Structures
1.
Amino acid sequence: STRRKKIYEGHGKILYEGPEPGTLVQYFKDDASAYNNAKRAVLEGKGVLNNRISEYFMTRLNTIGVQNHFIRRLNLREQLIRELEIIPLQVVVRNAAAGSLSQRFGLPEGQPLPRSIIEFYLKDEKLGNPMVTEEHITAFNWASTQEIDDMMALSLRVNDFLNGAFGAVGISLIDFRVEFGRLWENDFSRVVLADEISPDNCRLWDTQTREKLDLDRFRRDLGDAIEGYAEIARRLGIMKEMP
Ligand code: C5P
């Protein structure tokens, strides 16, 4: 295969220069990491599943007007995406208590929240991705007030869509994390959904049994993580020709 310029390598993905200006190739690895990279493993097949699952949601979100960086899937592990100016924040949406929210406020995991809660974290692994408020975000110029509003509105639309899509196949969306970037056109930019939507960054429980089907299986040693990912793909009907 041809040698491509590597733009960025994260724990789960690699970004390469794309075939045309303004595009990148997003490659999904099998590497899993948790607890700020303290726990790592290779989960065979994870990249293939995440590529497919993320394609499924990004395509559908695009058609309902939630603009995102996805252009098209190229092969089992790669997708063509639009190059964005990444906003250095992670946006978490929570429908029920779990993980760090349960710890912080002493809430039992799975307890429904009075309403969906949005949180912002700084995307800086060396600092352990600290939680930030709108004050920090605007004071340090990570995003404008308008962009914060846009990210919140888009995150809630993604939440509504994912709740419906997962709910229809008997899966409860406990929480998820997304990232955004700026798409520039002349002197104007708009906020666009980036990264991926997969069981790496969503908490997904079987609605009936409460079985966890997401990366928490790996984080907490709850069994074969890939079985959970494959079950999600199967229920969404996107696993027909998968290994
Ligand atoms: O750990 P916490 O409860 O804050 O995680 C909330 C949600 O954000 C979970 O779905 C988790 O998978 C996701 N997350 C993520 N990347 C991080 C931190 C959390 O995808 N760096």
2.
Amino acid sequence: MGSLSGTVALVTGASSGIGEAAALSLAARGAAVALAARRADRLDALADRIRAGGGVALAVEADVTDRAEAAAAVQRTVAELGRLDTLVNNAGVMLLGPVVDAPVEEWQRMISVNVMGLMYCAHAALPHLLAAAADGPRKVADMVNVSSVAGRVARNGSGVYNATKHAVGAFSEALRQEVTGRYVRVSLVEPGAVETELAGHNRPEILDTIRQRFADMERLQADDIADTITYIVTRPRHVAVNELLVRPTQQQ
Ligand code: NDP
């Protein structure tokens, strides 16, 4: 058993990429993990994998852009796993391209998932995180919000994605100040380019541009960011890692 024994984590966007890797990593340290996303088949397969390794997992099909579904995912986690010590707010979409003549529904999708979805999950989770910090096994609770290098540096061609991730940074810092005195640590993780399915949802011409940009670069793997998240949530109670920006070595 690891240092997260007796704790419960909810990971959003657990059906692929960083969320999937984070769920495996937290489970390996003894956390019971609730896995939230829309693709139930992927969640079931991951839950089976975690259980086969001796862990505890719960698949929770949820679209975080629906406030009721986000709240229900938190409630089901607490009802079935008993508590909530850690929220990894990771679900996100990245739809890049120029602002001029952009399909505005892509903006709406990004704001719905990356900003509102993250905030709905945070809102529903906070009472449970505060309770865990008051009398849980570690007397501390964590909310890890996954932003991006795009939340630090704006670039021509990713304006609205930049806007959503800057929003995540602002929200996280304000919330950190609000709850840190009560031992709920709010952390921001800002990955650079990670090899996942994320870019695959872009229009073909945009996807080509993204592929060219990273063609010769050794990108991060989802496990690298899972390590980062696990590092944050396994610090002693008096240590809060507020923010970590992790780029592939070659990324400028
Ligand atoms: P993936 O596309 O592999 O994962 C995204 C996850 O988000 C999936 O599990 C997806 O599940 C979930 N998701 C998307 N929409 C919703 C929704 N409406 N409700 C619930 N879940 C949803 O990409 P990554 O693992 O790379 O992305 C994870 C996070 O990391 C994102 O916030 C992204 O912005 C951030 N990030 C990624 C970087 C990269 O280079 N890959 C760099 C910087 C940040 P499903 O479709 O089943 O619902």
3.
Amino acid sequence: ADALQRATPAFPALEGRHPCFSTTSEGHAAAARLHLPVSPGCNIDCSFCKRDFNRSDQRPGVATRLLSPEDAEAVVERALELCPSLAVVGIAGPGDPLATDHALDTFARIRARWPRLTLCLSTNGLMLPSRIEEIAAVGIETLTVTVNAVDPEIQATITPKIAWQRRRLDGRAAAERLIGNQLEGIALAAALGLTIKVNTVLIPTVNEDHIGDVAAEVAAAGARMINIIPLIPQHRFANLPAPSLMRRYVARAEAERHLRVFHDCQRCRADACGVPGLSDYTAALYGDDLLAE
Ligand code: SF4
Ligand code: SF4
């Protein structure tokens, strides 16, 4: 079934134009993506999140350095020279791209200078309903929303507190608000024609039996694909194991009953550049001149 799926593009308009929405191997290899680490802050507190600045860790939440929107333009310029197949500019951290204005400001600059680049945004979804008009207006085509649970009891363990309208919400209240905004935001984005992928971190003992429910709800809201990301045990979840191969297989099979499953995620850095799993220009991109503030 997988071989058959892979022979037919799931998103014909994005095939060969976005490595993570291309579902054939030819399409995946044809297009590179650049992540711009312009988003400093976050508005929620996930138990597995450890943000850092360094050159070595290969995982989300890590970048060489934070970029201002002006710096980001210079990075795109250089990336287009280094990496001729660059087709997508995404913003996925190091914090949440909708918690501050840097990401949408950066996207507007890029759209004005390089209108042919596909714009891709990754968010925890808390601010999605209130910022969806801006997101559509700036021309973002592909959206990833991280949804780790649709049951508030489970979600409260994963993200015990959030900042909402200048107040702190804890526990169940935080979880209900986050899940509600994520599902509403996905529905609004789908209605505006964005192509939506959901990322779900697979967390042993916490949400591993809940993946089918997440997939069913986000599919009903309008998501088109799901990416099950194995937990990297760190921060408050440092003592949990990483999910076994069998657990990953079962979770993906559960999700596949409701949604197309993305199988090739590399858990990229917030400043990645190249085709995920095939090429990596990040070190070349951040030469010593770009490291100096
Ligand atoms: Fe970290 Fe992203 Fe969660 Fe914010 S939303 S705490 S950046 S994993
Ligand atoms: Fe694609 Fe996964 Fe990398 Fe995001 S983290 S760019 S979905 S491979």
4.
Amino acid sequence: TVSQFPEVEKVNERIANNDFFKDVIDGLSSQPKNLKSKYFYDQAGDAIFQEIMKSPEYYPSDCEMEIFAEQCAALAEAMMCSENEFDLVELGAGDATKTKFLLRHLSDQNIKFSYKPIDISENIINYLHATLPVVFPKIQMEGFNGDYLHMLKKVSSTSQKRKVVLLLGSSIGNMNIGEATEFCIKIRGTLSPGDMLLIGTDLRKNPSTILAAYNDKEGVTKKFNLNLLTRINREFGANFDILDFDHFPTYDPLTGACKSYLICLKTQVIRIGSFALSFQKDEVIDMEISQKYTLEDTRSLASSSGFVPVADFYDKKKWFLDTLWIA
Ligand code: AVJ
């Protein structure tokens, strides 16, 4: 039957069979309510995350940038435990700002390898295909658009070369330790002995420094969280009023869990598609975890997922660690 309301019909079409929609309804029907942070990154979210990285309080990207800018010779050397040509596979390549330091070094040394960025954003993969070959004419590259494990399996099935996998930016922090372990076990499952994984982790430090990074004075992080409600409004015709929600970041120095919540400021019913979901005043939506690691945490993650640590790269303040593991 054709709806008399073409707008409603359009939304209904979009939400049938849509993982994002299912996750939103599941999450907001759960107790406690939750939304998945991987959905932060629509076009507006990408731009707000760029703003976060420029905020004075958000240190992790600066720290990892310093590691890549100053230590890529040592990084490259540690990665090349064999003379053979290899695949450099990056999970969540983004615009490859940090990786470009490494690509520059490898290219200048005439080292034989292929760069294989994987990203969930088709936009990003197209951008990398359009720009990298111009900057690095000597480097072979092939981008893959899709989710990490799926695309990693695809890379494995289409190339016999040794693989060095990059998971930078403390993306692993968006999983709790249990989820991170499962994820690393799955990555290990796609790799062969001699393959490597370089993981960026944000280290524990003064709790006030950590909390401030997720509670910047300008309110960019707040805007980043609220943008997910705006995205749900736009994509599914929901009726969130972002003024009815507040951003509440926490950091627990005992567990290293840095978490963001949205707090509902009044009792209300929110419509999303054909669903009506009730929100109580002061009810909490669990939005994001950014797990902070100790060196020991990274060691046990490596051993419980079948990797052996081979080298560690810190920034000068020792706030961030890129740790290289071998399968
Ligand atoms: C992109 C996952 C590394 O958790 O620090 C920044 C995202 N969230 N501010 C992080 C984020 C709030 C970021 N990662």
